[in-house]
Amino acid sequence: MLSGVTYRASNLYLLETLNMTSDLSPIVQAKYAAAKTAADMVQDGMKVGLGTGSTAAWLVRCLGDRVRDQGLKIWAVPTSTRTAVLAREVGINVIPLDEAKWLDMTIDGADEIDSELNLIKGGGGAHLQEKIVATASDQMVVIADAGKVVDALGTFPLPVEVLHFGWRTSQMLIEETLVSMDVLGRKTSLRMAGDRPFVTDEGNHVLDLHLNRIGNPRQLALVLNQIPGVVENGLFIDICDRVVIGHGDGRVVVRDITTGTETSSTMDLDEGDNLFSDL
Predict the structure, then answer these.
(1) What is the C-alpha separation between 7 and 163, in angstroms, rounded?
(2) Which candidate in 130, 232, 262, 271 is catalytic?
(3) Which candidate, 115, 116, 119, places its Cα nearest to that of 127?
């Protein structure tokens, strides 16, 4: 039986995806197109990491559709409690990372993607598990709508997960460190969930760094993780192998940084109209 917290998380996550289908805006259609394309990359027998977020929710539903209709057999390692709940509900076999040990592929969303396929992740507060799972995979595939592609990272606030103990001290140390970093802004804020601090699956807090532009993401990622109390930051450097970018008209662009190739195709969006009709 699901705990009260987990049940509510599942309901909210499913409600988010259901709300998507009630108003298929171009951005929602773009997310679906990217997720469906990535879901079709998964092969029978794979061990797959499943990301967290609205685009990842589409992915989970698309994979569940293949499990039900095509007999696809996979083992999935979710990156959050709410993804795990959703995956089980659509019939996907869920196992812990320690059991899987190593994954064939992780598919996840992103909040920002630059030209070198560096990412900002953590809008959903799951970037610690997401980074662990992604780096335990042969390849990481990122799915996103075209609006997530940027010239330089930093417009989206950079999440930094910190221990509850001494989080104000960690925040102060981060702000002092930012003075010497190549960033345009240095404001930091504690992420809230209503009138209470947001708490990750690991029981930690998240500080959001409002940097506007990050001139040297690699340097910043290394420096932040050296600060006492910092558990992990939302910069994903040299982790993503492929990006699948969806557009509102059904066009999908796949860029592979390993091979240096870029391919484009167009999806019939009508096929996704009834994807959630069973809920």
Answers:
(1) 26
(2) 130
(3) 119
Contacts of 122 (CB under 8 A, 6+ apart): 111, 130, 158, 159, 161, 206, 233, 234
Alpha-carbon span 66 to 92, nearest angstrom: 10
Sign of CA dihedral 100, 73, 245, 127: negative
Mark whether 130 is an active-site residue: yes
Average pLDDT along the chain, 279 residues, taken 10 residues at a time = 40 46 79 98 98 97 98 98 98 98 98 98 98 98 98 98 98 98 98 98 98 98 98 98 97 96 90 51
Q: 237: Cβ–Cβ under 8 A, 6 or more apart, which residues?
A: 118, 217, 218, 221
Give the integer Cα–Cα distance in Å for 251 and 243. Answer: 14
Rg, Å, the chain Cα set:
18
Position 48: which residue type? V
